[in-house]
């Protein structure tokens, strides 16, 4: 199991680059869809996208083991809310990979008895639950940081200064709202790891919501969000200090 975990964490970087390419293809296909001169290119991009997607499924075969290790680690966290959110997120992620692996086996013809459509929906559902738990965690961390900042005297001074310096804002909007937005933005600015993780999770959210038909967005939006989230994924892998902890 250790060897599998080690190997899959090493292939994570590769997968993120493939993922970014896959969504860049999807976005380009969407942008070029009405251009008859580019029909050839669109067809090439489509086949590239399909191939990358199939290749990524193969690379993801060991990810279930990775997620199970992550579940075990998350269960040891001392903060109750974090423990619940991260454990649930990783359990759903493990279930997602199990569905994903079964779909891979179905696609290559190893097992034929499973219903592709149903398992694909199961996979999207698990992915969605994992994202919702991750976003709950982000929200919880942001609220805690905001409370902390709000109690900080140095920050209070800064906030009062901001509120007194922006009369045009104070006139049109509610001062409490202005203070809240200021506190929120300052919090996100001081903790870029949390800000990045939140943006990434929100971007990812559009993918399962679209697949499950809960919120139908355009193929362009899904491609764009997938690309942004993949680029953030590459960034946090290249710069581990930007990665949310735990
Ligand atoms: C949820 O967060 C965990 C830990 O940060 C991460 O490993 C996992 O990939 C996230 N889930 C999804 C679906 O992005």
TrEMBL record:
UniProt keyword Transmembrane, yes or no: yes
InterPro entries recorded: PEX11 (IPR008733)
Broad class of the protein's primary localization: membrane
GO cellular component: peroxisomal membrane
Keyword Glycoprotein: no
Keyword line: Membrane, Peroxisome, Peroxisome biogenesis, Transmembrane, Transmembrane helix
GO biological process, one term: peroxisome fission
Transmembrane spans: 219-238
Cellular compartments annotated: Peroxisome membrane
Database matches in Pfam families: PEX11
Protein name: Peroxisomal biogenesis factor 11 alpha
Species whose genome carries this gene: Cyprinodon variegatus
């Amino acid at each position: 199991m250790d060897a599998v975990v080690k190997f899959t964490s090493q292939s994570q970087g590769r997968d993120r680059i493939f993922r970014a390419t896959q969504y860049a293809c999807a976005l380009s296909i969407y942008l070029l869809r009405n251009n008859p001169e580019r029909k050839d290119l669109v067809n090439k991009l489509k086949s590239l996208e399909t191939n990358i997607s199939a290749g990524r499924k193969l690379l993801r075969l060991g990810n279930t083991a990775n997620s199970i290790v992550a579940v075990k680690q998350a269960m040891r966290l001392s903060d109750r809310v974090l423990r619940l959110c991260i454990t649930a997120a990783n359990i759903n992620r493990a279930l997602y990979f199990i569905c994903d692996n079964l779909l891979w086996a179905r696609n290559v013809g190893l097992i034929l008895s499973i219903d592709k459509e149903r398992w694909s929906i199961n996979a999207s559902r698990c992915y969605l639950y994992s994202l919702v738990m991750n976003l709950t965690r982000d929200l919880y961390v942001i609220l805690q940081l905001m409370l902390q900042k709000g109690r900080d005297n140095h920050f209070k001074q800064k906030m009062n200064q901001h509120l007194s310096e922006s009369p045009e804002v104070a006139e049109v909007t509610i001062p409490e709202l202005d203070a809240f937005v200021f506190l929120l933005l300052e919090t996100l600015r001081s903790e870029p790891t949390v800000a990045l993780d939140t943006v990434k999770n929100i971007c990812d959210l559009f993918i399962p919501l679209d697949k499950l038909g809960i919120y139908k967005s355009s193929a362009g939006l899904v491609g764009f969000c997938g690309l942004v989230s993949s680029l953030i994924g590459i960034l946090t892998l290249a710069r581990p200090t930007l990665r949310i902890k735990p």
